[in-house]
Design brief:
By secondary structure, the protein is of the alpha/beta class. The protein has a single domain, classed as Rossmann fold, CATH 3.40.50.880. The chain is 29% helix and 23% strand. The protein has a nine-stranded mixed β-sheet with strand order 2-1-3-4-11-10-9-6-7, sandwiched between helices. A two-stranded antiparallel ribbon has the order 5-8. Strand 9 and strand 10 form a beta hairpin.
Amino acid sequence: MNQVLLVVHQETSNPGLVGHFLKTKGYALDMRCPALGDELPQSLEEHAAVVVFGGPMSANDDHTLPFIRQELDWIEQVLAAEKPFLGICLGAQLLTRVLGAQVRSHPQAIREIGYYPITPTAAGKEYFQTPMHVYHWHQEGFEIPLGATLLAEGENFANQAFCYGDFAFGLQFHPEITAEMIDLWTTKAADQLQLPGAQSRQQHFELHTHHSPTVQSWLSRFLAHWLGEDPTRQTLRPLSAA
């Protein structure tokens, strides 16, 4: 049980700061990529928690990408097992669909690619103490499912974080991001930096330098809370290369 299952969607996927902090806490990382043919476990008895990361595909691609349909069905099993579940970007959108809500593009085709502010709701102050800027890379957003609680809001995409019960959380943004990951993403997908709403490559790095320490501090506390630990006792060392 001292391992966390990480579901990724590309050969170059990296769990970044999330993986770093989980390893610092003593968890082994079991990383699987269904898009490349990896199997998802039928039982979660050997896993303490599950994180589903982002990817360039859509949560609505289940009719054209079999692994998306597989993940949607599998997430239902995770929720039934009441294991801590964290969905990041695509992972949050998959969770949204499993819970019966919709995932859609912005009506003005705006993207969030770079650092943008989020603000905690009244219900979200337990998890987000103050507004902060976080890293995004998406063109779709999620509705808040029936029975879920909105935790943080944004300007272009109103819904930025939610929880469902005590175990499942969805984040529209990428708290796992590091400078190395920004370098890779802005190089491989440089064309997307020209899309409406996207920030320049230079802005990505400048804003990361400014905002990453705050996000790292928040992430260490959030993961502790998510895993049922005492977040006030966390002394995780930041990743200096972030």
